[in-house]
Amino acid sequence: MTYHYRAHGLTVASEFELPHAKAVGEKRPEVTFRSGEVPAVPTGAHEVGAFCHIHDRKVFLTVPGVARYLVSGGDQVVVEPEDGTDTASVAAFLLSSCWGALLHQRQELPLHASVVTPDGVTAVAFAGSSGSGKSTLASEMLRRGWSLLTDDIAAVSLADDLPQVSPASVASKLWVDALERFGIEPFEHMRLRPQLDKYVVRREGQVCLHPCRLVAVFVLRAHNRPEVELSEKLAGAKRFAVLDLQTFRRRMVAPLGERAGHFGRLAAVSALVPVRSAGRPSIGDHVSDLADAVEVSFERQST
Amino acid sequence: MSEIVFLASYPKSGNTWFRAFLTALLDGSGTTPDVNRLVGPLVVGWATVEDLLGFAGSELDADEVLDLRPQILRNYARCAKDEVVYVKTHDALAWTSTGEPSIPTDLTRAVVYLVRSPLDVCVSYAHHAATTMEQMIAHLDDPHARVSRHSERSQVAQPIGTWSGHVESWTSEPPVPVHVVRYDDMVSEAVPTFAAAAQAIGLQRNRDEIERALRATTFERLMLHEREHGFQEKMTTEVTFFRSGRTGTWQTELQYDQVNRLVESHGRVMRQLGYLSEKGPTV
Q1: SS3 letters for B56-97?
Q2: pLDDT at B149
């Protein structure tokens, strides 16, 4: 059985079901996910993490207890699941870490960000590390009538010299406490992995299916002060540095031979997109305050 | 490849103070270090840990992450530039499902384990986390306890277990030599206590240097620094992180039956550490 999806501007043919991606009719794929044998990591490979190695621009990834993945050419992922692994777990890591590797190989700029659009034309990105609240904030914007472009990884490219983000997700990944906040029922079949309290929440009718122009990036952080705080637009060099840090799997860039290319893409995008820091108290529910601040900032920027 | 020195402790047992002293000792100039830039951070934020793993570690469950703890730290040591890298940890020492200790013993140069009477810990931790004393007594007795930053999802879980279990995990036949430091000795016998700890982690310093570092990191100085610059380890719930620093405050803050219950739960380990005698808890 082969599933077909569209994500990050690419058509994917996958042996594995990917519940977060947009299903499409059968088309000639640009990217293939298939099962197969993944060879051992060659000696002399660059280590980009305890379980991630790069050799000859091929990315070898092991998720212990789940699967081994080989990402190559920017167009193929071979997956060797461990015996008895559930398919949801195999798919979970395929959609995060492997996509990051593919996008770097394809000379794209992948940011660790959720991206939403108020109007199907412009887009706002919420960047930050895992657990910083990107998906939760994006979900709050959806509740306010915005639409989802991508939940976890944003491939930022230049179209007519303007930065754009392509759609990649039709679902948000949310932990159970966020589900409770939004009044969403956590059904078992929605679990990202059987043993996790993280759920894949499909967003029918709240998804944008075409690329949008990126007009703002908010980098999310928790702090120990009592209020939400949005910074001013960051100045040039700081903007570049901050966006660089939000690059998804940044450690892969150099071993993939993309240091110069990445620098150029980052320079182009950071010159065009305002970046702000968005801090929230680490305790308590401040998602609404944060969303209010984002809306005000976006409106101010648009006028 | 760097070697790791672990600064381990149950929460609120003097770890930050020790890290401040260590930072000042390594610096040597006598100025009070920036409390937001102390050596020996926790290695628990997902941004760091996912980078060290090379994949989305936040989509693993707690047991899976525990199994990977030694590899995470090993990679941290591999990425470090200095000969020695300091790592703070609040985790109880544990074993992976394959029988490996949760710290990479092959790369461990030394472990300093800071310990404080559970009576004082209870008071300090309750203030820090804005809980009642009852809630904190239960927390110290909970074998599934974790350092909880109020359900923050941005970090790896830090399993601490019970206070007694925590102490025993690090001090009862540990897989590497562990140098135990009592908070009370840091307060009352500062120079020899800190000097011995420095020696244990391979830092040869003379008395003048130890004293200079201690003067730079007195409680008052650290509290002042926090007031001027903020402190990222302060919880949103507390006014300041550096609150009192004294020993024995349990006498005024814990009720009689609360003390009894803590002694009942943790008496054996308290006795071993000199926190309990026939006459009762020591002051």
Answers
A1: CHHHCCHHHHHHHHHHHHHHHHHHCCCCEEEEEECCCCCECC
A2: 58
Cβ–Cβ below 8 Å for B236 and A226: yes
Residues of chain A with C-beta less than 8 angstroms from the C-beta of B45: 129
The pLDDT score that the predictor gives to residue A58 is 98
Long-range contacts of B136-145 (CB under 8 A, 24+ apart): B137/B258, B137/B261, B137/B262, B140/B262, B140/B265, B140/B266, B141/B265
C-beta separation of A283 from A129 below 8 A: no
Chain B residues closer than 8 Å to A130 by CB: 46-47, 50, 56-58, 153-154
> Nearest CB to B59: which of A93, A249, A282?
A93
Residues A82 and B90: their CA atoms lie apart, in Å, by 33
Q: Which amino acid is at B39?
A: V
Q: Note whether ipTM > 0.90 here.
A: yes
The whole-model pTM stands at: 0.93
Question: Which residue, B265, B259, B217, B269, is CA-closest to B123?
Answer: B259
Count other C-beta atoms under 10 Å from residue B204's C-beta: 7
- Would you write out chain A's pLDDT as a tens digit for each of its 303 residues? 899 999 999 999 999 999 899 999 988 999 999 999 999 999 999 999 999 999 999 999 999 999 999 999 999 999 999 999 999 999 999 988 899 999 999 999 999 999 999 999 999 999 999 999 999 999 999 999 999 999 999 999 999 999 999 999 999 999 999 999 999 999 999 999 999 999 999 998 999 999 999 999 999 998 888 899 999 999 989 999 999 999 999 999 999 999 999 999 999 999 999 999 999 988 889 999 999 999 999 988 877
Q: B261 CB near a chain A CB, below 8 Å?
A: no
Report chain B residues whose CB lies below 8 A from the CB of A51.
Answer: 53-55, 71
Comparing CB atoms, the residue among A93, A133, A196 nearest residue B61 is A196
Burial class (CB in 10 A: 0-12, 13-18, 19+), A252: buried
**Inter-chain touch A51–B150, beta carbons under 8 Å:** no
Query: Do B56 and A93 meet the contact criterion of CB atoms below 8 Å apart?
Result: yes
Minimum-distance CB partner of B55 among A51, A132, A133: A51
How many helices and strands in chain B, by DSSP H and E?
12, 6
Is the CB of A50 less than 8 angstroms away from the CB of B54?
A: yes
Q: Cβ(A116)–Cβ(A147) under 8 Å?
A: yes
Q: How far is B153 from chain A (nearest CA, A)?
A: 4
Residue of A nearest to B130 (CA): A283
Q: Which of A49, A63, A222 lies at the smallest CB-CB distance from B152?
A: A222
